[in-house]
């Protein structure tokens, strides 16, 4: 088995109200950068397991990938369309 696939997880396609998404789990050991979750607008720190999602239509590129807290991804249909950034939040 390929070591990168084990470390990064295997992508699956998930159907949501806004379309089909490729989704791949990122284990804590493979999480080495800080990302901002679009669901809650909070940081995903290195060493925190999370997931990455991108449109499954194949038309996008690497810039279309978004890193999400797993719980935020599961709850995204129950949230409003956009999270407002707090006044003191860093902008990435």
From TrEMBL:
Protein name listed in UniProt: ATP/GTP-binding protein
